[in-house]
Design brief:
- Helix content is about 70%, strand content about 0%.
- The protein has about 575 residues and is mainly α.
- Among the domains are: about 90 residues, Serine Threonine Protein Phosphatase 5, Tetratricopeptide repeat (Alpha Horseshoe), CATH 1.25.40.10; about 45 residues, no CATH class.
- The protein has a two-stranded antiparallel sheet with strand order 1-2.
- The radius of gyration is 28 Å and the shape is globular.
- It comes from Chenopodium quinoa (Quinoa).
- One of its GO terms (biological process) is plant organ development.
Length: about 575
């Protein structure tokens, strides 16, 4: 370029930053002859966009005071907020003495995004000036927390003429809280419905399992956009109707974006999804954070380490490897594929580790039964200043259960509320039952599960029932199974287990009665299946399936293996 000025330099820095090519952006920034506020802001945005917050903060502190305007403060605040570092965001916010309503709204939105209701409301009340966006953010915060009475009152108290965004926030609040009819009623009274409000209603119907009404609204829309179509596509995926989802995607949607591809890929969840990812790239759609998280997770679920490593390389080329959620999904994938050393190597290469990253590594160690490593990672996590959450304790309790560490497990369970103010969920109770069950402490497990809320899911009860069968405690097993079937009469696994318990006690009539009732109620046990990756392709095997083209060879080999196994077992 023969003639360069500050504008062209800034464009280059912004372009590199938007494409996550942060090192190239920094080299341009360092050699440009003169910098203005746009230069500093562009470089700052590049760092925060790549989640390089330490480098961003160093740069922010170097900005000359005469150039450090509200945009600079907003970019740095948003960087902290986007990455869940709300305490550092608040610390920075408090240092900004010349705050305007925009900066206050940014901090308020941060609290809203992270569900910090009390902090948000305290800030809202202390703001010297509030605009309509402030009121809408606080309304959204109440709605997200399920406080619909407070949201409704605030909506009525808004001192300005409500715009479409305020109306839509209230409608979305109703939908998110399952109050679909109230949301529809408010939508019908909305004076000027824009396309965002229509889309809000469609997605609300979809998320509440009312796809038929969503489709009806979609057909009646005066104008549609890609978001409208993506919502319907998601509706099909949510119902597990992949055939109609694919038909809608290929034949009805007149335009698609990365979100469309992501939705369809997430719905398929088999190796076919990875071929769809390849087709997405062939059609020149650019993968984003969600694309990589979804596809990498599929690789982990199916143990497709070849695909997983290829995706890892792509995240390095596109710099998405620096994204906390993408890197965490890669760690999880390596762990599930049995490559725990690769998972640890990637973990050590990450500059900034949040609670999600630490949890992923703790879960990985727990998955592989490395109790010492898992507990050591937990200690390091606390020392680093990261607070544990529900997932952390779920991993720790799992490790304790697998290793029979009853005392340690009890201590972790008790510390959840006493030290970290985290209420145990049904999954944590199930882990504790697993811990007690493995040690034969069935009545201790029963007493613990009895403390759960009545409307809690039955995971813990189901775990206890399995241990009752394992330890031959049929009396307690019958009590537990009856409790489960009161709330979940169509639970196939529990019906089968209860039938087996009766059979083990010699109560053949009772066992047959359970099986008969299952047939009458059309309760069917899900057929088991497994996947095997071989020669770069994946084969799916379903119980008693004879549709494979090499069925006869497969079953013949199984018979041969069975004979060999029996011979070996007689020799041992």
């Amino acid at each position: 370029m023969p003639h360069r000025n500050v504008v062209t330099w800034n464009c280059m820095i912004s372009g590199f930053g938007r494409n996550l090519m942060i090192n190239e952006a920094r080299r341009m920034f360092d050699v440009m002859p003169a910098k203005n506020v746009v230069s500093w802001t562009a470089m700052l945005s590049g760092y925060t966009g790549c989640a390089k917050l330490e480098e961003a903060r160093i740069l922010f502190d170097q900005i000359p005071d005469k150039l450090k305007n509200h945009v600079c403060w907003d970019v740095m605040l948003n960087g902290y907020i986007k990455n869940g570092r709300i305490d550092e965001a608040r610390e920075l916010f408090d240092q900004c003495h010349n705050r305007n309503v925009g900066i206050c709204n940014r901090m308020l939105n941060g609290y809203v995004q992270l569900g910090c209701v009390e902090e948000a409301y305290e800030l809202f009340l202390s703001m010297p000036e509030r605009d309509l966006a402030s009121w809408t953010s606080m309304l959204t915060c109440f709605a997200k927390a399920g406080l619909m009475n407070e949201a409704k009152a605030l909506f009525g108290d808004i001192p300005f003429e409500k715009d479409a965004q305020a109306w839509t926030a209230m409608i979305r609040g109703y939908m998110q809280n399952g109050m679909v009819d109230e949301g529809l009623e408010l939508f019908q009274t909305m004076p000027h419905k824009d396309i965002v409000a229509w889309n809000c209603m469609i997605s609300g119907f979809v998320e509440n399992g009312r796809l038929k009404e969503a489709l009806d609204l979609y057909r009646r829309m005066p104008k549609r956009n890609i978001i409208s179509s993506n919502s319907i596509l998601y509706g099909f995926v949510l119902e597990g109707d992949i055939i109609n989802a694919q038909n809608f995607f290929e034949n009805i949607m007149n335009q698609r974006d990365t979100a469309s591809w992501n939705t369809l890929i997430s719905g398929i969840q088999t190796e076919e999804a990875l071929y769809l990812f390849s087709e997405m790239k062939r059609r020149e759609f650019r993968p984003d954070q969600t694309t990589y998280i979804t596809t990498v997770s599929i690789c982990g679920s199916l143990a497709l380490h070849g695909w997983g490593k290829a995706l890892h390389l792509q995240t390095i080329k596109t710099s998405y490897v620096h994204d906390v959620l993408v890197s965490s999904s890669l760690i999880s994938m390596y762990s599930k594929c049995g490559l725990i050393n690769d998972a640890a190597t990637l973990f050590r290469s990450i500059d900034y580790r949040d609670t999600v990253t630490w949890n992923t590594m703790i879960v990985a160690q727990a998955y592989h039964g490395s109790v010492g490593q898992a507990l050591e990672f937990h200690s390091s996590m606390i020392q680093s200043g990261c607070k544990p959450n529900h997932v952390t304790f779920l991993a720790l309790l799992t490790v304790c259960a697998h290793q029979g560490l009853v005392k340690e497990g009890q201590n972790y369970f008790m510390s959840m509320e006493s030290e970290w103010h985290i209420s145990p969920r049904p999954e944590h109770y199930a882990c504790m039952v697993d811990l007690f069950g493995r040690s034969g402490m069935l009545y201790e497990a029963y007493e613990l599960v009895e403390q759960m809320p009545l409307d809690a899911p039955s995971y813990a009860w189901e775990t206890l029932l399995n241990y009752c069968k394992l330890h031959g405690n049929f009396e307690l097993g019958e009590i537990v199974s009856q409790k489960i079937l009161k709330t979940s009469p169509s639970n196939a696994e529990m019906n089968v287990l209860l039938s087996n318990i009766y059979a083990a006690k010699g109560l053949w009539d009772e066992s047959e009665n359970v099986r008969t009732a299952m047939k009458q109620q059309d309760v069917k046990k899900e057929v088991g299946c497994s996947w095997v990756e071989l020669g770069g392709s994946t084969c799916k095997f379903v119980y008693n399936d004879r549709s494979h083209p090499k069925t006869e060879e497969i079953y013949r080999e199984i018979e041969n293996l069975s004979v060999i196994i029996k011979r070996i077992s007689t020799m041992i």
